[in-house]
UniProtKB/TrEMBL annotation:
<dbReference type="InterPro" id="IPR013783">
    <property type="entry name" value="Ig-like_fold"/>
</dbReference>
<feature type="signal peptide">
    <location>
        <begin position="1"/>
        <end position="18"/>
    </location>
</feature>
<keyword id="KW-0732">Signal</keyword>
<dbReference type="Pfam" id="PF13004">
    <property type="entry name" value="BACON"/>
</dbReference>
<protein>
    <submittedName>
        <fullName>BACON domain-containing protein</fullName>
    </submittedName>
</protein>
<dbReference type="InterPro" id="IPR024361">
    <property type="entry name" value="BACON"/>
</dbReference>
<feature type="domain" description="BACON">
    <location>
        <begin position="59"/>
        <end position="109"/>
    </location>
</feature>
């Protein structure tokens, strides 16, 4: 009986010991820890480091070809190549010592171009002057094509300033084509200096310049950029108004031109005419526009009028002098002028 009691005590002590051993196995220590990292990469790439502490040998692997790693003691040297894309990119570096594993994210900026030079045409008036734009890139910036006899530039602290000299009196127009190259970006600009004064007498044509129909006198008004047009030799020689907006001359419709000669109780209204589809509109929102251009020698100013997309579902191909009835255009009229071209005398 005493031997049986001793055996039972021994078994109880063994079970208690095994239970204590299981509790201790639940407490494990981390054998791999990242101490510090220096991993800031812009578009140009470069090198960085990861410092770690490990009781066991460590291997490092990268998740992308553009990021390479090498273990040297307790340091992982990280090398990132140049990012040729506009988008940023990321990957991870994985450290393992057989017992533990940890991942460190790697982030690289894309090819950033921050600029306010969003228009392909830069225009100066006859007085010249300067304009400035924000221009910031992660790459070197190369600007070529400036005609330094009249237009120059400076680029300082992310600001591009373009300067133009005064236009000579005997010249109406000059231009140069400039190319901006930075990283993967290539952007082309046309720098133009012009005399946008359209006052004076013009020879007027229809059918794309093939048929002369008279002349018109353009005079300035008290309103800036608004001009009075007085035609001579057209089907209806009544004044109307045009506007210079930027480098375009714009005609708006719905203008009442005066009484209809055969019935003074009614008026003539300037309407937009879609000759192809036989449509008219007197909406003041519809425009007929001509960019200010010049002859090859720069001696004459040329206006070639065309549709600019303001008449939804139709095409502005010219003017129509329409007769009103009770104040509303009837669709009948005096004459249509199609595909107009004006050339300064």
């Amino acid at each position: 009986m005493k031997k049986l009691y001793s055996l039972l005590m021994l078994l109880t002590m063994c079970v208690a010991f095994i239970g204590c051993s299981d509790d201790n196995d639940d407490v494990t220590e981390q054998t791999l820890q990242v101490v510090s990292s220096d991993l800031n990469f812009d578009v140009n790439g470069g090198t960085g480091t990861i410092e770690f502490d490990s009781a066991l040998p460590v291997t490092a692997t990268s998740g992308a070809e553009w990021c390479t790693v090498a273990v040297n003691g307790n340091t992982v040297n990280v090398t990132v190549s140049v990012n040729p894309r506009m988008e940023s990119r990321s990957t991870v570096v994985t450290l393992t010592n057989g017992a533990d594993e940890t991942q460190i994210p790697i982030y690289q900026e894309g090819d950033i171009l921050d600029t306010t030079m969003t228009q392909s045409n830069i225009t100066f008036d006859i007085e010249g002057g300067e304009v400035s734009y924000r221009l910031i890139s992660n790459w070197d910036i190369e600007l070529t094509g400036f005609d330094e006899s009249w237009v120059t530039y400076t680029l300082e602290n992310g600001t591009l300033t373009i300067r133009a000299e005064q236009l000579p009196e005997n010249m109406k127009y000059r231009s140069c084509n400039v190319k901006l190259v930075t990283g993967i970006h290539t952007m082309n600009y046309t720098i133009t200096q012009m005399n946008r004064d359209i006052t004076g007498t013009w020879n007027c044509y229809i059918n794309g310049g093939a048929t002369a129909y008279g002349t018109c006198l353009i005079e300035a008004t008290e309103t800036a950029n608004r001009y009075k047009v007085t035609p001579t030799g057209s089907a209806y020689d009544a004044p109307y108004y045009i506007t210079v907006r930027g480098t375009d001359v714009v005609v708006n419709f719905g203008q009442v031109l005066g009484p209809y000669p055969d019935n003074p109780a009614e008026n003539i209204v300037l309407c937009a005419y879609d000759n192809t589809h036989g449509q008219l509109t007197w909406s003041t929102d519809v425009e007929y526009a001509a960019p200010i251009s010049f002859s090859e020698d720069g001696s004459q100013t040329i206006l070639r009028f065309a549709d600019n997309g303001t008449w939804s579902g139709a095409i502005v191909e010219g003017y129509y002098y329409s007769i009103t009835s009770g104040g509303t255009p009837t669709g009948s009229g005096i004459y249509a002028l199609i595909n107009m071209v004006w050339i300064s005398q």
